[in-house]
Amino acid sequence: MKNKKTRNNYLNMLKLCIEFKIRAIFLSIALIGTSFLSSYPIKYIEKIINICISSKNDNMEVFIKGGLIYLILQILNVIFRALFEYFNADLESKLGHKIRIMLFEKLEKMPFKFYESNNKSEIIMRLVQDSSVTVDGILQPLTFIIKNILTFALGFIYMYSIDKTLTLIMIPIGLIISIFVLKTGPKISKLSYDERESNSKLWNGFSEALNGIREIKVNCQEKRILKDVERSSYNTRKVIMNLKKYTIKVGNINSAIVMSIIALIMILGGYKVIQGTLSIGGLTAIMMYNGLLIDPIVDFFNLFQQMQKVFVSCDKIFLVLNHSEEPVNLKTLKDSFNENIKIDRLYFKYINDDSGFYNLNSISLQINKGDKVALVGYSGSGKSTLCKILVKLYDDFEGNASIDGISLKDINNENIRNIIGIVFQDTFLFSGTLENNLKFAKPNVSEEELKNALEMSGVSLFLENLPNGLNTIIGENGFNLSGGEKQRVSICRTILKDPQIIILDESTSALDAITTSIVMKNLLELFKYKTVIFTAHKLSNIANVCNKIYVFDKGSIVEYGDHNKLIKKDGLYKKMYNAYE
Ligand SMILES: Nc1ncnc2c1ncn2[C@@H]1O[C@H](COP(=O)(O)OP(=O)(O)O)[C@@H](O)[C@H]1O
Ligand SMILES: [Mg+2]
């Protein structure tokens, strides 16, 4: 095994599967049955051949009896094998299900930034491929140990009872093979790792290309992307071939050694038969038992090779399982939001931004209950970043941020996210009906509430054009809706969620001027007594409705006041205001 960490990961994975022990016991019993019944009947072959050679042909009864016992044993063998196959498939599917769900549950608890430093295809690969490889890695050793050790031991004992010398020859050769196989470990492990990594890159290439198919088409870049994917695929092919070439080589050297044992036993066995120290039945049985001894040796190599892949996958799974989660069991705001949001000299930097600058630089502001606040500034000035911090998508900031006096870092994420509703700049819709998308945050809203929210968000303005109204199927990520329609769906979702603080992050940016003013008017009416934070770079719609305006520039707040004060100031705000008028 590669190292201590890998070993611990694998052992921990076995521990996680301990709940299936009863099933594993059933599986083991069936396996012991079939292993025993695969080797035991050979004894009858030895007997029958020997009787055949030694006696006259009038001994039919012995053949019939022998044949019947053989038949019964083989039927039992088939039954045990079928049971084993069933239990194996059952355990395999249950383990796969458990690992996938465990992994997904953990993924849901991961801090948001985990998704910024890990690409999605790699995560999906862990859910789909690594989990199934790991299941193999749990079941195969179990099966191997029971089946092969038993078969090997029984074969060895039977063979030994027929001829000691011929059996003992196997030991040194078996040892040589084992050492040989173990020595190949590090190389197979490295090649398996390369195979997994290049597969992950390939998946990523496919997924990016399919997600960006619109850009590829309109920019006529099909050929270039095909070339990229081809390069990736070629690399995967090469890596797979490297692994295959190596395992074919090692596997066949292994087989050659094994075959030479058979040849040796044939020669020595034949010599013994001529010498009269071994019966023909004995030699035949030994040759058959040989098969029983050789299978475990070959299986050992296959398992060994497979386990290198398993360790790679298991490590990948534990990178997720051992990752720190979003904190829970923190404080909750007692009843509701009552006083204010205070931010004092807050600094924040994205982990994957290596410009050396803070994305938010000493931000201080205060939002009181009922305020209508605007965060304005050029795009890239840090408005959305602050909004995401408020809903705790990131909590590794420096400085202070509190809600009703409790530090944001100490408040339960779920609590915060129930109090604050956010409409993001870029809306994500799930495939399914429009209605399910609208009710996403609150599935049990009444007809009345839904109707009102449709009206207020401006969804009703395009609803009648949809072929099936609320039951219209929305394609993957709202494929069949326009940008402005998607934004309205997102606003409607938040209205239905009915939070106490609402963040509208450029949430009308894709709407035309008339629709924007209708929706804005509705929202201001609807959220009259609520706390609302708008962000915008176009200022006309929010200028007069916000009692507080913070002007952002390159991550800092450079101006603060209400519209009139800021216009008088003749600074960045005025410049931006005039630019969009
Ligand atoms: N996920 C991210 N990772 C790294 N940098 C980011 C990320 N999101 C935004 N940024 C950077 O942070 C800065 C502020 O972005 P943002 O808050 O989205 O600006 P705004 O909403 O004002 O347009 C920009 O320079 C942007 O490039
Ligand atoms: Mg933004």
UniProtKB/TrEMBL annotation:
Instruction: Specify the superkingdom.
Output: Bacteria
What Gene3D superfamilies does the entry give?
ABC transporter type 1, transmembrane domain, P-loop containing nucleotide triphosphate hydrolases
Q: How does it sit in the membrane?
A: Multi-pass membrane protein
Question: So where does this one cross the membrane?
Answer: 20-42, 62-84, 142-160, 166-182, 253-274, 280-301
Please provide, in alphabetical order, the Gene Ontology terms of the cellular component aspect for this entry: plasma membrane
Molecular function GO labels: ABC-type oligopeptide transporter activity; ATP binding; ATP hydrolysis activity
InterPro entries according to UniProt: AAA+_ATPase (IPR003593), ABC1_TM_dom (IPR011527), ABC1_TM_sf (IPR036640), ABC_transporter-like_ATP-bd (IPR003439), ABC_transporter-like_CS (IPR017871), P-loop_NTPase (IPR027417), Type_1_exporter (IPR039421)
Q: What is this protein called?
A: ABC transporter ATP-binding protein
Q: Where found, per UniProt?
A: Cell membrane
**SUPFAM superfamilies the UniProt entry points to:** ABC transporter transmembrane region, P-loop containing nucleoside triphosphate hydrolases
